[in-house]
Design goal:
alpha/beta, six-stranded mixed sheet
């Protein structure tokens, strides 16, 4: 029986974009007895509402099934591959840009963790005990590299992890990365040697008071605001950092599907 639609469900237009990219069933195994669209809808329900896996509504496939697909696609890199494909498609349709950017923006976000355990540390500057999400985004705000690590790791050290992930992403056209003052220092010279990227520091004016919109840096802050719509990401609720990174990829996949379907 057809069920009533949830707000987090994919529309027909969004599923038409994603369906051809879903990996086929492995040869020699059991035939799939569950609809892949409902598996993705179940995961989006968890992500948007922040509910635990066992609280997944019963009109979705069993939560064990949804989690099995989510975990398997995390382990084999499917979520990251889907994210890359949709990001390149969104860039082409968002003003006719090249699939890979020439410039990016880096920033981090510290979030409290739950009692699930896993990576946890104290961010003394922001008074947060938990994990830190490090993102590099393009000028559209689309994620290029995502790394989750302990909040105790300073931005300069955590940036080396996300830049290493960025270097493995095959962004041959990338030349310039904007950052705030927390990334100044030896990191600027460190970037020039292996990848020949230029790190441009955008500083806040000491004379300005109140809210100040800084050039380029507001783009990555807007991306964090987009991710804040997903309650599962309001705290660090994943035990593994790889799982936390996969959840960020799924959220960005949903955001890009919404925008692509509108076009």
């Amino acid at each position: 029986m057809p069920r009533e639609r949830y707000p987090s469900d994919l529309t027909d237009a969004q599923w038409a974009i994603l369906a051809p990219l879903i990996p086929p069933a492995k040869p020699g195994g059991r035939r799939r007895e569950v609809a892949m669209r409902e598996v993705v809808n179940g995961l989006l329900s968890i992500l948007r509402t922040g509910a635990g896996w066992r609280y997944l509504p019963h009109d979705f496939p069993p939560h064990e099934t949804v989690y099995t697909y989510y975990n398997a696609w995390r382990a084999d890199g499917t979520w990251e591959a889907l994210h890359t494909t949709l990001r390149e498609r969104r860039r082409r349709r968002g003003g006719g840009r090249e699939p890979t950017p020439r410039a990016g923006i880096v920033d981090s976000q510290s979030v409290k963790t739950t009692n699930r355990g896993g990576v946890c540390g104290d961010d003394a500057g922001k008074q947060v005990k938990g994990c830190k999400r490090h993102l590099v985004v393009d000028t559209l705000g689309l994620a290029l590299a995502v790394v989750v690590h302990s909040a105790a790791l300073q931005d300069r050290d955590g940036a080396k992890l996300v830049f290493a992930a960025l270097g493995r992403g095959g962004f041959a056209r990338l030349q310039l990365i904007w950052a705030d003052g927390g990334y100044a220092g030896k990191l600027v010279a460190w970037l020039r040697d292996p990848w020949r990227w230029t790190l441009a520091i955008v500083k806040r004016s000491d004379a300005a008071r109140g809210l100040q919109v800084l050039p380029r840096r507001w783009v990555v802050e807007r991306t964090f605001a987009w991710l804040a719509r997903y309650r599962r990401l309001s705290k660090g609720d994943e035990y593994l950092t790889e799982s936390a990174e996969a959840m960020l990829h799924v959220a960005m996949i949903h955001l890009m599907l919404v925008r692509l379907a509108r076009q």
